[in-house]
Tyrosinase-like (Seriola dumerili), 447 residues
Amino acid sequence: LSPFSFCCNVEAQFPHACTTQEALDRKTCCPLWKDGSPCGQNSNRGICAAPAREALTPFDYRVDWPSAFYTYVCKCFDKYDGFECGVCLPGWKGPNCTEPHLVERKEITDMNDTERESFLSNLDHAKHNTSNRYMILTSNDTTVFSNFKFHSATVYDLYVWLHYYAAKKYADTDDDAAHRGPAFPFWHRVFLLFIEREIRLLTGKEDFYIPYWDWTRHANCNICTNDYFGAVDPDGLIDKASRFSKWRVRYHSSSFPHDPSPAPITRKPGMDPTADTLPNMGDVNDTLGTDNYDTTPYNSRSRNSFRSKLEGFDIPRDSRHLQSSMHNLVHDYLNGTMSHLPTAANDPLFMVHHSFVDKLLEEWLQCHKNASYPESGEIHKAQRGGAFMAPFFPLRTNDWYWDKDTLSLGYSYREHSIPHPGLNRGATRKAEGGEGRALYSFIFCDT
């Protein structure tokens, strides 16, 4: 997954009501709810509070989110959520957020034709309809506070830029808010919940969910077809019979939002000889069999780390001489829009890929109940447990999500309807030191 080279151009989402000059001058992002009070205070939904910390130096206004922009933001009570406390926490619904709400994420090939068409058409609807809740911030230098503008964007493009904002390296570092560190799987968990909610609000379909793609079942992309995300021609362009052939890449173009010739989505699956296959069950077993959540130095050089293996930097010795594994290998294998951090989320394959990554995170957490979010001065301050996860509202720390399983967040994962061809519940392998241990599968802990 090709990274950014420096910290300049950046885009992100900001609540529409907080992009006015008055809100910026007052450093306050406490929009009025429908009862006419900030954060729905009169209805006891939340209050306008000052949890944001002072911005630190060296200055990059994405660090210490969101203190460079706002001192006062909404703090939501009970089961209320959102930038104005006007929506429910994941897992709840109803006018007062008192009704439990649970969806089951299926493997995408287990969806029937109607379910699949509904999912894909909702994505297309989100790609072509402007968000009335958020605006996008654009800048070509994040170390100059006055260097930014706000623009409208579609709901799907809003999602794209949110990833771009968090994935851009901070000045003079290899660090960002969402990758190469302990926040990686949790940031992307919240990211999927964000777009699920926005599409539900846009379409009125409260049971919309993001399925997962189990990429261990095939050596090649079995959903790169017109029934799913589009077949591709030898040039990497999506077949014209697919709706996704009309999608255009939005990323860090200096001419945004008036790019006269935005590029189409591209893929050349398996054409990179260093990433010519997808991760297999052995890679997953090796990852889930790692006991340490993360290890020093808490970045891409971490070894014997579940997070680093899941992300794809700590490569198993028997991983077929590939340049990456697991999450990163899937991005590299697709060899196009998905293979570059600035553009990756433009390809709708991104979300079903990350839904499976999230499923693996949940399985590891369920098998490691005593683990905890790491604490160390080596971790970049944007990914420390007590740092606010950028750029989400309301403010949540990175470690807030550690002890919240998927059921508490309103979703679960249904196992694939067909048993995995590589599943062997009774097999063993030799671990370090010669001890035998159970082979990990997707739902079985080593007990």
The helical segments are 21-26, 113-128, 155-167, 184-203, 281-288, 306-311, 326-334, 349-367. The domain at 102-393+408-413 is CATH 1.10.1280.10 (di-copper center containing domain from catechol oxidase).
